[in-house]
Design brief:
This protein is an alpha/beta fold and 515 residues long. It has 18 helices and 18 strands.
């Protein structure tokens, strides 16, 4: 059995067992990464108050890090309360040494104030974080109060000020920032992320519980664990949001004060913990028609309307017309012809990208890539009664599509594909089964699907198998259509609740793609 990724937590020890190193280790275990700890501060606390905090000496912290570096080097380091400016300097020196050996991510949770209200850091410590640590930070995860403290703001951050605050925090050198909203009110728990992959608001209904001790630590540690498994920053933050919500659902009382959150090993992810990701701190209020039959089966993606009668004659019921060219009279004619042919042959036709023409000519549905999703008039598409499909290639793209509540989700590439250059890692059948079980609308698999793989995709719970070159770029397309239709089961495999972690669940990208 291969060794799990190693993640270090350098933080304070919570004698009450709810936050700090104790919370970090629970989150690491839930994600199946190996957690190592270096104690930076020791607290005497319970659920009501912190009675005493003592930072460990710089020499003791240095000795802990030296011992770990000798035998158990990390791929990610997560920090919490470091206790002193001198300990920040020790950590900086070790980060420089470790990065000379190879890649190393740093997640900084800038602890300023305990949930009990006790102040844990002063101005000198804040300056040390900003000057020495943040320039080396991969991901910074302050709550709203901590973000205001880092920026030396006297007033709490309102939602309207958070995007600008995130931008300002990045000026200290961090590669990404997530300003969490656990310390704010409102019906939604709102986290704002600014990452190399995307920006926007992560949204989930706020859980009404007084037991949230350690939720900030859990969020940062979960993000660190996900990054250790290969997720990019935006993906890791979506998973951290899901994990923290699940941990809050299992929070419990112990002592007289707020009790700790609890993230269980192998925790179950259900649709109600999937956050929406959107550019505004509110979700779009759209309604797209559901598919009349959730089992799509073979879903050819063709580049010319003349394919429509041929596919329909073979028994195909749903197609996508994907013509990648700018608006023109020729394009208008092709889409109008395709829609007319689809109606004549009784098949459901999705128009890729060109939603104004789809609306104008009365298409059955529209399929959008992620870039098109940001610029299309979604309200006009919904108002025209068109079904909507959305391409997704990663966790954060799924969360953004989920905010729109489409008629179906396309997930891929499942396998390597030669149809076009794809910067995304192949997802595999395990990831496909995960999303097919988690998402509330049908999932279409796409990417590298021959008849055997298409059958496996449906067996994993996918509603449809999208195929491009496997039909349109072969010597005998009619035989290819028969082979696919014969191989694909008549109904998808029953969905079962997905569980995390999944060792192959590494949805991340080298660069963005538009479809």
């Amino acid at each position: 059995m291969p060794s799990p990724p190693v993640v270090w937590s350098i933080a304070g020890s919570d004698s009450g067992g709810g936050a700090g190193l104790q919370a970090d280790l629970r989150a690491f275990a839930a994600f199946d990464v190996h957690g190592c700890t270096a104690v930076a501060a020791i607290t005497a606390q319970n659920s009501v108050a912190i009675r005493r905090i003592d930072a460990v000496t710089p020499a003791l912290l240095d000795a802990q890090l030296a011992a770990l570096a000798e035998d158990m080097p990390p791929c990610v380091i997560k920090t919490g309360m470091l206790g002193s400016v001198e300990n920040v300097r020790v950590l900086r020196a070790w980060l420089q040494r470790l990065r000379a050996r190879g890649p190393l991510a740093l997640v900084v949770d800038p602890i300023w104030k305990a949930s009990s209200g006790a102040i844990l850091a002063d101005a000198a410590y804040r300056n040390a974080l900003r000057e020495l640590l943040l320039p080396l930070t991969t991901l910074l995860t302050p709550n709203r109060a901590e973000a205001a403290w880092l920026l030396e703001l006297s007033e709490p951050l309102e939602s309207s000020a958070i995007p600008e605050a995130a931008h300002r925090l990045l000026q200290f050198g961090s590669g990404a920032v997530a300003i969490t909203g656990g310390d704010a009110g409102g019906a939604l728990a709102l986290d704002y992320l600014h990452t190399p992959q995307t920006t926007g608001w992560l949204m989930l209904p706020r859980l009404l519980t007084r037991h949230g001790h350690g939720s900030g630590c859990t969020f940062a540690a979960a993000a660190a664990a996900a990054m250790a498994l290969g997720y990019c920053e935006a993906d890791a933050l979506v998973l951290a949001k899901m994990a923290t919500h699940d941990a809050l659902r299992h929070a419990y009382a112990v002592g007289a004060g707020p009790g700790p959150v609890l993230l269980l090993p192998g925790f179950t992810l259900t649709p109600d913990v999937l956050p929406m990701l959107w550019q505004y701190p509110r979700a779009p209020t759209l309604r797209f028609p559901a598919l009349p039959d959730p089992h799509i089966g073979l879903y050819p993606v063709v580049d010319d309307p003349t394919w429509i009668p041929r596919c329909a004659a073979a028994g195909v019921t749903t197609l996508q017309l994907r013509i990648k060219q700018p608006a023109s009279a020729e394009l208008d004619d092709a889409i109008q012809t395709g829609i007319a042919l689809a109606r004549a042959h009784g098949v459901h036709l999705f128009i890729n990208d060109h939603w104004p023409l789809a609306i104008r000519h009365g298409a059955w549905g529209v399929h959008l890539g992620q870039e098109d999703l940001q610029h299309a008039d979604l309200a006009a598409i919904a108002g025209a009664g068109l079904r909507l499909g959305i391409s997704t290639h990663s966790v954060w793209e799924v969360a953004r599509a989920y905010a729109v509540k489409p008629s179906y989700y396309a997930c891929g590439p499942i396998f390597p594909t030669r149809s076009k250059a794809m910067p995304w890692h192949p997802q595999g059948l395990t990831n496909l089964a995960f999303w097919s079980a988690l998402l509330p609308a049908p999932v279409v698999a796409i990417g590298g699907l021959d008849p055997e793989r298409a059958a496996h995709a449906i067996g994993c719970g996918a509603s449809g198998a999208a195929v491009m070159g496997g039909v349109t770029a072969v010597v005998d397309p009619d035989q290819a259509l028969r082979d696919y239709l014969a191989a694909i089961p008549r109904a998808p495999h029953p969905r079962t609740p997905p569980r995390f972690p999944r060792p192959t669940l590494s949805w991340h990208a080298a660069a963005p793609a538009d479809d």
